[in-house]
Every structure is written in C-alpha cells, then in structure tokens.
Amino acid sequence: MAFTINNLKDNSNVIIKEQLGGFTVIEYKEDLSSTTMMEAQLNYFMSRSNMRNKQLMIELNNSEVVLSAGAMQYMVGNIEMTSGVKGVGGLMRNIMSSAVTGTTAIRPQYKGTGTILLETTYKYLWLIDVDNDHIVIDDGMFLACESSLELSVSARKNLSSAALGGEGLFNLSARGKGVLALEAPIPSEEAVVVELNNDVLKVDGNFALMWSSTLDFTVEKSGKTKLGSAVSGEGLVNVYRGTGMVWLAPLMQYKNSIFTPNA
User: Fold this and answer.
1) Alpha helix (H) ranges present in 35-186?
2) What is the pTM assigned to this prediction?
C-alpha cells in the first residue's frame, strides 16, 4: 500500500482495545478538543466514568466487508463500494428486511485493499469470531462484518414470542464463518453468556443481546399456575429452550430503570 495514516495508532491518546482479523477497535482516552467550560466539564466526567469515544478500523487486503449504511467515516486505498443490492428484487427484499428488523435497507459492500474508518460512537464495540455458526442479533446492533458471513432475517417461531415478549417478530442473523462487529449498549466484559445443552433459560425482561438460532424462543408464565406467577411477581418470562448460547446484559435493565420513572 502506498499510503500512511499518521497520528492514529501511534497517538498517545489512543488505545487499541481489541483486534480480530482485519478489524481493530480504537478507543480515545479523552476528548482533547474542549473549547468551553461546559465541554471541559462534560469531557472530564465522561472520561472518568469510562464513557469514551470508540472507532472501528477495518484493514482490507484484497478482501471484502459489509457495513451498516452511513457507518463509513473515511477510507484510504484502492477500495470500491457497491450498494450490495442485486437488482430490484434484492432491493425489495432489503426494504422488507429493514422494515421488520429495524436495520437499514441497504448495507454497502467495500472491496479491495486499504483501510476504512467508521464513525465514532460512545457505545461499545464487540468483535465476534463467528465460526461456522448461526447467531441472531438484537435490533440495531449490527455494524459491520466480513462478506463471508451471510446476513438474513430470522423469524420467531410463533407470534406470542414477539407480541408478549417485548421483542420484534424478526431479527437480523449472521451465518457462516467470519468476523462480526456489533455496536452494543454494554461492554463485552459485562455480558453474561449462558450455554444450554438441551436445557431451558428463563429471562424476566428483554435484555438478551444475541442467541443461537438453534434455540426456540417463546414467552411463558413464570409459574405453572396463575397463582404461582402472581406469587413470584414475575408474570411472563422470555424462554430460550434447546441447545445453544445466549448473551445477556443483566445490568442494562437496571441502568435503564434509573432514568425511567416508576420503572
């Protein structure tokens, strides 16, 4: 490659949080561009509370990735961008997928050799090595992936799981082998991963971020009887049944309740 990006990885204000394949998560220790007292105060407390700007860098070597629409900030090198839509039929399928999953209708593809920097975010960036697996992703988390992964819509097996569980009827899923980058509401260190082997997980709330497509998702009463459910105080719970894995964000519901009256 005939280019050099200076003052990025070698910047003393930058931390390399994680690397997987050609994907690198960059974190900025603090925002150095404060021009007012208010900005200075905000930046100080944000950095002290671990609220830092993060950025995904993708290095291509005659390879191809798929991004969420509008995610690219800048790119350097011999990289071509296409819409990722194959004809009118493909566009209609993408629009339908967008409507039911809450994701963008067009996910552009970038192919070639060079470096792509995505827009900065205060959310947390996860890099996942999908190894011949099929995982379902919660709405709005997809950021980027290698083109070797197949993105598709995963439908609930029954309507009750969507209507009663506080979840959508459809979710985006990734199948195959490759690197998947997600924009998550919590750091990966906070996620609890439950592995099921022909067993059952019951969750009071919708704070499952990802789960294996092999699992059946339903909504059921927490107890065998109405009285049992009333006594437990839980009512309905989300149930994941079978063999597979579920990634939970147990602190997310607590954090949301702090800022929600009567939560």
Assistant:
1) 37-48, 87-101, 159-163
2) 0.81
